[in-house]
Design brief:
Length: 153
C-alpha cells in the first residue's frame, strides 16, 4: 500500500512538473500574439541562413510555445528535434540578456548561429546589438546563460 501511494505521489509530482514547464515557457518566452520569433520560421535560420517569415497555417507548439513555418518540410524538421531550433534565451535579445540581464525585444532578421545555437538581437537604424555581442561574445554568452537561468530554470 505504501509503495502504491508513493508511486501515485511521484506520478502526480511529475505530472505537475510537466504541466508547469509549458506555462513557465509561455510566461517567460518572447511571444507576440502567443507566437515565437514574431512568426519567423526557426528552422530557416539553420537551413537557409536567413530569416524567413512563417505561415500561420503551418504551425506547431513546442512545450507550450507556438512557432510558424515557411513549409511543411521545415515544420517536420523542427518537430524531429525542436530544442535544436529554438532561439536561445526564449527569443529575447542575446546581447541584452548578457549585458544587463533584461528581456529586450529583437529584430528577427538580426541573428547569429554559433555552435548550432540561434541567437537573436535587437536592431534599429542606430543600434545593432549583434555588433556589440561580437566584440565580447564569450563573456556575454556566459553572462546571458546565467541571467536566463534566473528567469527560466
Amino acid at each position: 500500500m505504501k509503495t502504491t501511494f508513493a508511486l501515485l505521489a511521484l506520478s502526480l509530482f511529475l505530472s505537475a512538473e510537466a504541466s508547469a514547464q509549458p506555462m513557465l515557457r509561455s510566461k517567460e518566452f518572447n511571444l507576440s500574439k502567443n507566437v515565437a520569433i514574431q512568426g519567423y520560421d526557426p528552422t530557416a535560420y539553420f537551413t537557409q541562413n536567413k530569416a524567413v517569415k512563417g505561415n500561420s497555417e503551418i504551425n506547431a507548439a513546442a512545450d507550450g510555445v507556438v512557432y510558424y513555418f515557411a513549409s511543411q518540410d521545415n515544420k517536420a524538421l523542427f518537430l524531429k528535434d525542436w530544442k535544436k531550433y529554438e532561439p536561445q534565451y526564449g527569443g529575447w535579445c542575446a546581447y541584452a540578456m548578457g549585458a544587463t540581464g533584461e528581456k529586450v525585444e529583437i529584430d528577427p532578421e538580426t541573428f547569429k548561429i554559433t555552435n548550432g545555437k540561434l541567437y537573436l538581437f535587437y536592431h534599429t537604424w542606430v543600434n545593432n546589438t549583434l555588433n556589440k555581442w561580437n566584440k565580447d561574445e564569450a563573456n556575454l554568452q556566459a553572462k546571458a546563460d546565467a541571467n536566463w537561468a534566473k528567469f527560466f530554470h
